[in-house]
């Protein structure tokens, strides 16, 4: 794995005037979209881009799953899943993972998007039942043939992880899945309505950390870089790295998906939360979100360059942080491939 380096040409002081121009182009014309090049201009990204050689094969596999295993879902939903291109996302984010593991990761990414997009708009009582059923499956219950294919996909990769991970890791992963599902329920109680009661920035951050599912991503990174024992994972340094990685993923997603989430009446978007709390223009809120993201990158790199002594696990912790960097960079690079955020223009 290639070590991270804080490149001064990448982590330069952000030009807020440029950020504002990009934002105005993004919002004023419905035919003009923010691009990954725009984001790379204004977001710090010291993480070297990589991609798995299995990307094309993964894409074939995932498209087959969607056609065959998600076939009972509504056709517009299936079309959205294909445009997502989860194979590209996985290939950019875990470039060092062997093909079998990367295949499981791709299935898990597709499930995560499907779970959120399909179930989040459900009423609270129905969504609670879905969460309960998912947790039964997480602990080993095999879903019946009549159940939703999203539940079946979850069962498949959970059993695949059980075959390769430690019992300690599985317990941690199941807990982190429960936090993700709880985050979806909280999001559902806020979003998908015209009269959104936005949380404060302080309230938004812990909720977003749950519903972005980065804790489960951190767990998967360990399957590539080396599983850490619980006493290392709970160390304040590793916990801080996991939190920072989650904020970077969530906030880059909020910047990328701003227009989509405005049209979908989403309430957990950093830009919209800032605008509501500060009573400021959307442009100023966008600029502040960019500044918050870049500050988190600097915090993350400060951690990476000051890893404490974990004995025999010191190199494993270092690889873990490098894996987080690949995920963060991989998400931005995946944005060039996916059509998830370009459908508004096409429609």
UniProtKB/TrEMBL annotation:
Matches recorded under Pfam families: Terpene_syn_C_2
EC number: 4.2.3.-
Keyword Ribosomal protein: no
Coiled-coil intervals: none
GO MF entry, a single one: terpene synthase activity
InterPro entries, per the entry: Isoprenoid_synthase_dom_sf, Terpene_cyclase-like_2
Protein name (record): Terpene synthase
Species this protein is from: Pedobacter steynii
């Amino acid at each position: 794995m290639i070590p991270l380096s804080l490149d001064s040409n990448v982590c330069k002081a952000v030009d807020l005037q440029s950020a504002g121009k990009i934002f105005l182009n993004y919002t004023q014309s419905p035919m003009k979209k923010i691009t990954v090049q725009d984001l790379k201009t204004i977001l710090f990204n010291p993480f070297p881009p990589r991609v798995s050689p299995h990307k094309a094969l993964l894409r074939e596999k995932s498209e087959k799953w969607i056609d065959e295993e998600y076939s009972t879902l509504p056709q517009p939903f299936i079309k959205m899943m294909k445009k997502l291109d989860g194979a590209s996302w996985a290939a950019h984010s875990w470039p060092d993972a062997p093909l079998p593991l990367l295949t499981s990761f791709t299935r898990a990414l597709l499930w995560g998007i499907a779970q959120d997009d399909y179930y989040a708009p459900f009423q609270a009582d129905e969504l609670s039942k879905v969460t309960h059923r998912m947790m039964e499956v997480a602990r080993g219950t095999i879903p019946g043939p009549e159940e939703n294919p999203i539940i079946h996909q979850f069962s498949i990769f959970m059993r695949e992880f059980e075959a390769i991970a430690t019992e300690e890791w599985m317990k941690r992963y199941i807990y982190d899945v429960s936090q993700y599902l709880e985050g979806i329920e909280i999001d559902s109680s806020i979003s998908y309505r015209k009269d959104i009661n936005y949380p404060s920035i302080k309230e938004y951050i812990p909720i977003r950390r749950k519903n972005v599912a980065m804790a489960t991503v951190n767990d998967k990174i360990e399957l590539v870089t080396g599983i850490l024992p619980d006493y290392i994972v709970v160390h304040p340094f590793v916990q801080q790295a996991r939190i920072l990685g989650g904020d970077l993923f969530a906030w880059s997603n909020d910047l990328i998906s701003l227009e989509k989430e405005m049209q979908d009446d989403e309430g957990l978007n950093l830009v919209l939360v800032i605008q509501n709390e500060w009573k400021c223009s959307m442009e100023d809120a966008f600029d502040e979100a960019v500044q918050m993201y870049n500050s988190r990158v600097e915090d993350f790199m400060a951690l990476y360059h000051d890893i404490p002594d974990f004995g025999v696990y010191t190199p494993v912790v270092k690889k873990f942080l490098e894996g987080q960097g690949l995920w963060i960079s991989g998400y931005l690079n995946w944005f060039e491939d996916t059509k998830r955020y370009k459908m508004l223009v096409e429609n």
